[in-house]
Amino acid sequence: ARGMQDLAFAPGSPHVTSDKSLPLSVSRFSSSVEERFSRVPEPVQKRIVFWSFPRSEREICMYSSLGYHPPEGERDSRVPFNRGLHLLQSGAVDRVLQVGFHLSGNVTEPAGPSEPERSFHVSISFDRCKITSVSCACDNRDIFYCAHVVALSLYRIRNARQVELRLPISETLSQMNRDQLQKFVQYLISAHHTEVLPTAQRLADEILLLGSEINRVHGAPDPTAGASIEDANCWHLDEEQIQEQVKQLLSNGGYYGASKQLQSMFNKVREMLRMRDSNGARMLILMTEQFLEDPRLALWRQQGAGMTDKCRQLWDELGALWVCVVLNPHCKAEERALWLVLLKKWNKLDVCPLEEGNYSFDVPGATTALQPPSVPSAAATARQTVFRRAIKAGELCWGDCHLQKILGSDCYGLGVKSSGDKLCFDPQGRPLWLGDPFPTACARVDALRGHGYAREALRLATAVVNTMRVQRRHQLESYKQQKKELLHKGSTSITNLEGWVGHPLDPIGCLCRTLLEPCRTEDEGLALYPGMGGNVRKVLYHHVPVPSSPGSGESYVTLALEVALAGLGQQRAMPEGLYAQDKVVRSEEQLIGLLDEMEPDERLVQVLRKQAAVLLEGGPFSGFGEVVFRESVPMHTFARYLFTTLLPHDADLAYHLALRAMRLPVLETVMRVGDILPQSPLDSMMANRSPRWFILGHLETRQCELASAMLTAAKGDPKWLHTVLGSIQQNIHSPALLFRLAQDACKTATPASAPPDTTLLNISLELGLQVMRMTLNTMTWRRREMVRWLVSCATEIGVQALMNIMQNWYTLFTPIEATTIVAVTGTSHATLLRLSLDIGQREALCARARAVALQCAMKDPQNCSLPALTLCEKDHAAFEAAYQIVLDSAASATMGHSHLFTVARYMEHRGLPLRAYKLATLAFSHLSIAFNQDTHPAVNDVLWACSLSHSLGKSQLAAVVPLIIKSVQCAPMLSDILRRWSLPSPGLASLPSRRNAAKPPAAPGLDKAPLCQLLEAAIAAYINTTHSRLTHISPRHYSEFIEFLGKAHETFLLAPDGHLQFAQFLENLKQTYKGKKKLMLLVRERFG
């Protein structure tokens, strides 16, 4: 039990010795009384019994809710503590009786909408200010006390004087004579004979038996007398329920709620450790055993698959908690030995998860020499499970004399001069701690804080920060000596063998939370753990001076800021594995979120400026150094925080930092290699991306956000705008992100209620042009959107920008984009109105658009001829030039029949049928329709061309028939053409270009040229197609073949002697294919 001096008594309690005058705790007081008196006096017994019940409501809350909420806070009615508090306040507790170390009472649940009022009997046993067992008639099955136990406990704490107090029952029995005892027993049996009669008879039989076990034992048990002083006492914890609940939550591991509840249970362990409650380690052992029995572990190992991110986060928290438990500075040696035995046993299990990432435990976090890191030893590359760090932590001790002096006083080292021990003190005489690597030293700090030693944790944290400062100063001096050589070489090796941000021990986060905890303006200490506490809100910090640095102006807030800046700005290699890389990002965002809570006053801004300058000069030890390792973690997110925070105070420093951080070294190296290859930049980038950078897309997005922040801030400042533009063009290689930047810049430059920023608009256009050049030879579904946006952006700038992109279209757009989007949109009515041009400017812009259209038509006649003709309709010379391009392309076979037919139809629609006819005849020279292509895409075009030639006259008809015969071998199509020509032609007489009579020309007879030639070709096509189909015909196609012969018969009959020709054709078929008896039978039935 903890000392009584830190416990608050309930108001209105009986007047006994006050807290300050009680020199001993209840347990020690009981021990001394038992040793001194053979029989404890009744008044002393009553005092011991009275003060042995817990007096802190926080401890009751800890065992009845997942998180501690102050009574004044907003309460959740589902939490047992809050429900119990409500029952207490509503007067639901009655018949409370304390007999010795046993408390009992009734708690009444009020009636609900569908439930009657119910009363529950509650029993509580306690010993030395701890509840050791609970029992309630509600049969609660949970890891926490039920609301009824909470209500009775709070009643005893708040109304201690109103509770009827009795000595232990054994004391009462000792005052009775034989008759009283017999009467007492008989009345007790009579009152509860149905429950206790068998037990009473059994005990009577044993007592009457002289040699029985019960007669050999002196005295008798008393459940109200409390435990012996030698017995260990701890708070009641339902181990079976903990195991069952963890098992159930793990089986629902895919759900967000299950992971959140397990995290809350880990937070509960932290809360217990902070209260120095031994149940913290007990609960963690139970949870660990259930985690290792999770059947998914074996399945994942068998399949070679990684566990889910949620599960991995829980295992990380489990490993970190064990480090905290093992590093308990005041645990017993046998306890630590037991924990290490369990950890080593778990560590050997095949299913025990491995720690992801290339971190180590023994190697210091940063080197002071600019040498390439050595190859890891066999020990470093051994199997590293999540428990390996806790096992290593078990080898650490707290007995070092220097460490004990650091923990013992705020003034240690203040009198030491600079000539003192350089390994123990800095030049200002402040103590250093070099006994551990930086992450391990921070783990010690976290363990001290986690076990409730907040003052000692602050002292060690301050020493660790001082040590980090000295090491960074030595690193900077070492770098300056070799700076010229490194800059000349242009590259460097990584000097930090493991990053502090995203590290499994979270050293930066531990230090920051420890340093900030005493500076919070409200009691929210527990909320400093991620995931603990209620709603996130802005936290106010006040400056608490550092005792070991008097007169320096340092506070714990400034130290926390300095630590966070140093950790986030550390140049470090990207760890291996998707989860480890994702954890780096999450840890960075959490730290920046912690920094965002600090209001940047003058003192903090001074620290920011100083540390920013150090980061810029940090060389290979800083992520902002002039030369960075190729696979170092980018600084974009951190730089954005620094930029936005420093901008109001030191704009030049803010821009220098942000511009230095724009680098993405892993892509810059790839791009340099890709430039040698005959590929587009985008193709090269995509083909050569480093496969182990799983979060590269996320990093590029953060890079884009940093650039966007700089562009927005630089609005109105041409100097910085052009500098930022140069950095963007050099460092951002993603076309999609560049396009996003261009759009954002355009929106920023054109506010609704203010004139546009011309410089920013031009930069937006320049970024858009770069995107066009990067994606010119690639396929992207957003390309058309990009082109349209670029035209609209150029329109915002003015007519000259539009003229420029049209003039240089071949470096920016494909021909089809230039004609259908750029030229058309640039000369649309809406664009011309937007630009407010005079007649001369309009004509110049339209002339440029027509010139672009003609150039595109020459380069890509198939796709651009028709748009060019449409664009040039109002200019005769340009239209003629476009038409000539079409003719030349048709003659050189660069345009297919489908495009020629399309242009021909356009000419007909324009009222130029002769030009349409000319293009149609050219299309026939590129067309070939086989005998079995009844559904050829050009069928409708052929029929249209035939109708057009028929409407124009006999000479055109005579000229087109040979072309049709040459191009079309499909018999049904030829017969369809014949039938169309045998009918009156479709009227084209109303067209303006026609000068002949309104009556269309009559069709020539089928027995005269040129239609007789077409008829002969159709009959020949039917004969050839028939033989071809019969070669491989199957019975299921017989009916279809008969229908085909029927169509052939109709075509044969169009000839003067068609009947005889068809009869001869049938006879030939019967002789040639007489083996196909069933088919020939069908032919005879149909045609005779």
TrEMBL record:
The keyword Metal-binding applies. One of its GO terms (cellular component) is Cul2-RING ubiquitin ligase complex. Keywords: Metal-binding, Zinc, Zinc-finger. The keyword Zinc applies. It holds the Pfam family ZSWIM4-8_C. Residues 120-157 form the SWIM-type domain. GO terms for molecular function: zinc ion binding. InterPro entries: Znf_SWIM, ZSWIM4-8_C. This is Zinc finger SWIM-type containing 4.
